Amino acid sequence: MSAPATQSAGTLLEVSGISVSFDGFKAINNLSFSIGPAEMRAIIGPNGAGKTTFMDIVTGKTKPDEGKVLWGDLSRNLIGMNEARIARAGIGRKFQRPTVFEDQTVFENLLMAVKNDRNPLAVLFFKPKFKDLAKVEELAAEIGLADQLSRKSGELSHGQKQWLEIGMLLAQDPKLLLVDEPAAGMTLGEREHTTDILKEAAKTRAVVVVEHDMEFVRRLDCKVTVLHEGSVLAEGSLDHVTQNQDVIDVYLGR
Amino acid sequence: MDMFKKTPSLPIFIAVLVIFTLAVTFLSEAYGAGAISTSFVKTLGKTLCLALVAIAMDLVWGYTGILSLGHFAFFGLGGYMIGMWLMYARTKLIVVESMASAALPPTPSEISDAIGTQIFGVVGSSDFPLIWTFAHSFWAQIALVVLVPGILALIFGWLAFRSRVTGVYLSILTQAMTLALSLYLFQNDSGLRGNNGLSGLQNLPGADAISQDYISVWFFWASSLALLLTYLLATFLVSGKFGSVIRGIRDDEARVRFLGYSVEGFKLFVFTLTGVIAAIGGALYYPQAGIINPAEIAPIASIYLAVWVAIGGRGRIYGAVIGAAFVSLVSTYFTGGQAPDINLGFYTIKWVDWWLVLLGLSFVLVTLFAPKGIGGLFDLISHRMSPDRHGLPLGPDKGSLREEEAEK
Ligand SMILES: Nc1ncnc2c1ncn2[C@@H]1O[C@H](COP(=O)(O)OP(=O)(O)OP(=O)(O)O)[C@@H](O)[C@H]1O
Ligand SMILES: [Mg+2]
């Protein structure tokens, strides 16, 4: 077992010793690692390595069989909190498949995500203030959808939906962004734009990106964690991990 | 106002409702030409109440994606609550009057016993059950119209949503609640006169001198006003960010959770609010119907409600109104014996028997070939097209809109 890193002031999220199995199959096996407050981190690994499951656990979708997920300065344990509370605590998530509200406009999607009081009565009497509208416009510009605000998001291209979802993440103003395969299905130009958005975001908050595309990971230019069979196989710079023989055997060499 | 800008159909609806109300008033026997009989005024007033409860159904199903098959139970409960006061107060007047000629003035307990015998004689009892404690007070029963269905919806919703029961299972659960309630009310010792139900509700206490011609129009006005207010409230609910969130829940509730919204809280809010709206509709409906009995709450009634909304076009408020009004009026026509039987020589189609088959068939056809329902016809006029994006449902959830139901 890898010794859990001691919680220091420089840690935003610490995952320690989590395991989860589905019908006896261990999807996450005693996984431990931590992420700093304004850190960009890439997670790579073969299909089924447990990358998405890791995000499910951190965001409260899946309950681990054991282990802790400690969050923030107060090291609060997130296990047992529901998805909505974890999201409000400052963790935003982008899904592997783009999931936006297709029947609603880009504007409505973004406005729904903008950080504001989320209880039903406050939402019912919500009137967008100038700063909310400004935030929506600013984000729309950042994700390249400024002229699409009144379009139904279901009509957007695949890449645009991915951006919209990233925009919704940023609108929540989270301290940690978990981004699952943002570049899937994007053209080269779109990928570059996506890298820029993510790098910009990582200046002020932590960003964890799961991605299969090595070129994309290289452009992110950050520390890389390699997952395999539910635990950390290697960690370090991209060049460092790609030279690791284990990583070559299980992932790159195939 | 924002609401009007986002909902161009709102001023049209208001205009149609006002014109309709005026037209019925000036054609009624009480205030006008008398071209519309008093009993038909009542039918129209009741239809407005059904349109009101259909709006509640559209909010909970068409907008939030919760296929509740129990909202007619709340409607019925609202009717029972107001019915208790109507029956009590009127029986009391009759009893006091009949005792007035006695040599000794009757004591309060004698009056109470006499009222009890009058009301509960049919179920072989004369004692007032506990649930009639407030029946003497108009305002208390009005409060109960809101409180009883509201609290039932709150408790039921809290239990169901907290355990994240969704889709078909939730529908079955709401049917079970409805069935349990109607079976309970069928019992003689339920305190609500078993299968006799409450009757004579068309007679307002102290208004014996006033003809039903007038009372029917007053209730028609009240129903029209209630429908208008419900329509405005529903439009307000769905036009802002709240509408965004509940439509999000309908199409993909997991995603809404990850945005930090408490999906359970929103569902509970909508479920309870619409339960209360349904109850208010019931409180206006049954005085016009004159009688309420447990059969009104039978599970099938709640299913009809879903059928009306589907035929009218869910996810648009005027669709619900049109569906309820159209189907219930056509249903009155066919089941009321007005429709001429069709003689095929070897078999005579009696509409009283065949109407349900026709309704069921229309429901299937609408679901398959015209998912937007009657409301979709308006899209032809306003040239609103469905998007062509080959995505089929607009979200992964059971209640999500189908692609054909969406609009550009
Ligand atoms: N809810 C579940 N029930 C059963 N098995 C599951 C469940 N979720 C994940 N798994 C299994 O756990 C393993 C890890 O899945 P996970 O989705 O985390 O992989 P991944 O690293 O994200 O893979 P990919 O790169 O293909 O997205 C897989 O074998 C998967 O089949
Ligand atoms: Mg995955």
TrEMBL record, chain A:
Keyword Transport in record: yes
CDD domains for this protein: ABC_Mj1267_LivG_branched
One Gene Ontology molecular-function label: ATP hydrolysis activity
UniProt-recorded name of the protein: Urea transport system ATP-binding protein
SMART domains found in the cross-reference section: AAA (SM00382)
SUPFAM superfamilies for the chain: P-loop containing nucleoside triphosphate hydrolases (SSF52540)
UniProtKB keywords: ATP-binding, Nucleotide-binding, Transport
Domain ABC transporter stretches: 13-254
Gene3D superfamilies named in the record: P-loop containing nucleotide triphosphate hydrolases (3.40.50.300)
Pfam families: ABC_tran
CC per GO annotation: plasma membrane
TrEMBL record, chain B:
Taxonomic source organism: Celeribacter neptunius
Compartments, as annotated in UniProt: Cell membrane
Keyword Membrane included in the entry's annotation: yes
Cellular component annotations (GO), alphabetically ordered: plasma membrane
TM annotation in the entry: 12-32, 69-89, 138-161, 168-186, 218-238, 258-285, 291-310, 317-334, 354-381
Position of the signal peptide: none
UniProt KW keywords: Cell membrane, Membrane, Transmembrane, Transmembrane helix
Protein name: Amino acid/amide ABC transporter membrane protein 2, HAAT family (TC 3.A.1.4.-)
Topology with respect to the bilayer: Multi-pass membrane protein
UniProt-listed Pfam families: BPD_transp_2
